[in-house]
Description:
This protein is an alpha/beta fold. The chain has one domain (2-217): Aldolase class I (TIM Barrel). 30% of the residues lie in helices and 20% in strands. It contains 8 helices and 8 strands, in the order βαβαβαβαββαβαβαα. It has an 8-stranded parallel sheet. Zinc ion (ZN) binds next to strand 2. Zinc ion is lined by residues 10, 35, 37, 68, 176, 196.
Amino acid sequence: MSKNILISPSILASDFSKLGEEITALDKAGADWMHIDVMDGHFVPNISFGGCVLNAIKPYTKKTMDTHLMINPVQPYIDDFVKSGSDIISAHIETPHIHSTLQKIKSHKIKAGVVLNPGTPASAILPVIELVDLVLVMTVNPGFGGQKFLYDQLDKIYEIREIIDTCSRHIDLQVDGGITFETAPLAIEAGANVLVAGTATFKGGVDAYADNISKLRGG
Ligand code: DX5
Ligand code: ZN
């Protein structure tokens, strides 16, 4: 089976004191996308960073800026994240007015993603599937890097792959949380084609990034 698996390293696990160098290193190491975890201390119990950080790293890579918004409300900040350089903006289905949020993201001619927390069933995507370019299945409860993969989410990945395959358009199926060399193959087998990996990408320091990314991809 030869699938095109994309790796989106979460910069949450990078060394923030030299973020520009980290982005350059990830770019050279073969990262396909850059995963930008935005947390507000309200929708999730942690605060990370906002659009100004995205703005600052944008000159260091031409790779896809994959922005995962763990914030509520979402809509007042969409324009800002578009201006800051997001190529994809993903919003949680558990936030209010997700349908109009996705419409608003699409109105900027960038890609829209919808994210499901571990407690949300696969069927929740049905009313919005026509609006999205990406479905992100959380395999940890969002808020922190370095958590353990929730194996009970695998069935949901299989279910969402089935739903996506009934659509005529290309829709990416992304997984996020606890992705390691051991869990990546399970997520891929279940139908994921984009893997977010923080801890597993950065493990071992800069000289290990290329090898880590290639192993996560299954190479
Ligand atoms: C969790 C974030 C993840 C996280 C992944 O709220 O959305 O992207 O940083 O980190 P690891 O790969 O370490 O689980
Ligand atoms: Zn994320």
